[in-house]
């Protein structure tokens, strides 16, 4: 009787897992990226607006209880505002972004295939974020599916399976090849503990900004690979930081991180007024809830700027208004 019940349960789990992941991407594999057209009236950065915008970001950051590093770069003009862009932070799940890139590089190098089947074993399961920890041992995924789980759901089990396939030595070598200056990956960095570990995974705002800009311009691994990575990042499910106040009709391709008093979000925003990248990394004594709200507030200041010029009275009224609570 027990053996008869196991098959329907496995089928049910696999169906739920696959539907959760694949429904956002079905029919989207070959469709070209549709970027919002920039308003030619706002094609140039107004110096006074940009100066006020920069000041608002800095003033908000001063009030945060912890360390902050951020980069905001207009992808049309190249204008940039940054604080502590080379400061190194515990990466938390941001490390999954360079792992994603390294996996596509492995495919480009002929070391792997996106259609390669990889079997889930019981020892591969990892706690924390993700849904593959509930999948049955023996379930087979392709490398592409694991990369989608790893980014879209920040799935720790998927990340473990990808790392096992590529190896830490290959990942470190590829990070160096990519030109990353501050990003490190270590087995100890994946321990799900709130305490410090001997060798943590680390990165910086400038490394994250570098990867995102290269992906945006189609210059990371290959144009096809860059478009595929950007498409996956656009389906990220966690919406409680940079996307929290995202205006209707705008898009964001991003990756979050949360572990050991570190809270991050990095992404590319596609707006009618033009595209830009924003990377916010924090290490804090505040609660995770307050850290998420802080990142969301920097996102909101940036949205205000891109929604038709920067006006201090408008910013002040929006910033001080009570914030809506995230879903969960």
Structural account:
This protein is α+β, with helices and mostly antiparallel strands and 328 residues long. It has a single domain, classed as Beta-lactamase, CATH 3.40.710.10. The chain has helices at residues 2-22, 47-62, 96-108, 143-152, 156-166, 168-178, 205-216, 223-233, 288-306, 312-320; strands spanning 66-74, 80-83, 89-90, 117-119, 140-142, 202-203, 251-259, 262-271, 274-284. Helix 2 runs antiparallel to helix 9. The radius of gyration is 20 Å and the shape is globular. The model is unreliable at 1-24, 26-43 and 311-328 (pLDDT under 50).
Q: Which strand-content bin applies to the residues?
A: 15-25%
Which of globular, elongated, flat, extended, rod-shaped describes the shape?
globular
Distance between the termini: 39 Å
In terms of quaternary structure, the protein is: single chain
Quickly give the CATH architecture: 3-Layer(aba) Sandwich
What's the CATH topology label? Beta-lactamase
The CATH class designation is Alpha Beta
Radius of gyration: 20 Å
Q: Output the helix-strand order.
A: HHEEEHEEHHHEHHEEEHH
Average pLDDT for all residues: 85
Number of domains: 1
Helix-strand layout with pairing:
Layout: H1 2-22, H2 47-62, E1 66-74, E2 80-83, E3 89-90, H3 96-108, E4 117-119, E5 140-142, H4 143-152, H5 156-166, H6 168-178, E6 202-203, H7 205-216, H8 223-233, E7 251-259, E8 262-271, E9 274-284, H9 288-306, H10 312-320
Antiparallel strand pairs: 1-2, 1-9, 3-6, 4-5, 7-8, 8-9
């Amino acid at each position: 009787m027990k053996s008869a019940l196991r098959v329907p349960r496995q089928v049910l789990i696999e169906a739920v897992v696959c539907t959760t992941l694949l429904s956002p991407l079905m029919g989207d594999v070959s469709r070209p990226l549709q970027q919002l057209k920039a308003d030619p009236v706002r094609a140039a950065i107004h110096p006074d607006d940009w100066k006020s915008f920069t000041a608002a970001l800095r003033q908000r950051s001063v009030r945060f209880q912890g360390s902050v590093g951020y980069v905001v770069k207009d992808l049309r003009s190249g204008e940039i505002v940054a604080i502590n862009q080379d400061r190194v932070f515990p990466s938390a799940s941001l490390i999954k972004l360079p792992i994603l890139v390294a996996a596509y590089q492995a495919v480009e190098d002929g070391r792997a295939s996106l259609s390669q089947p990889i079997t889930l074993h019981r020892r591969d399961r990892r706690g924390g974020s993700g849904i593959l920890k509930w999948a049955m041992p023996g379930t087979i995924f392709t490398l592409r599916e694991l990369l989608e789980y790893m980014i879209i759901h920040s799935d720790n089990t998927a990340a473990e399976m990808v790392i096992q396939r590529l190896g830490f030595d290959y990942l470190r070598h590829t990070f160096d090849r990519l030109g990353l200056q501050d990003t490190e990956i270590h087995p100890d960095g994946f321990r799900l503990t709130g305490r410090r570990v001997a060798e943590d995974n680390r990165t910086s705002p400038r490394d994250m900004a570098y990867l995102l800009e290269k992906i945006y311009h189609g210059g990371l691994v290959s144009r096809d690979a860059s478009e595929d990575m950007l498409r996956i990042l656009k389906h990220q499910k966690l919406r409680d930081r940079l996307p929290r106040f995202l205006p209707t009709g705008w898009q964001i391709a991003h990756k979050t991180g949360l572990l050991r008093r570190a809270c991050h979000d990095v992404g590319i925003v596609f707006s009618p007024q033009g595209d830009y990248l924003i990377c916010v990394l924090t290490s804090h004594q505040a609660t995770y809830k307050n850290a998420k709200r802080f990142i969301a507030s920097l996102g909101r200041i940036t949205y205000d700027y891109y929604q038709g010029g920067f006006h201090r009275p408008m910013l002040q009224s929006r910033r001080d208004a009570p914030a809506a609570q995230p879903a969960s």
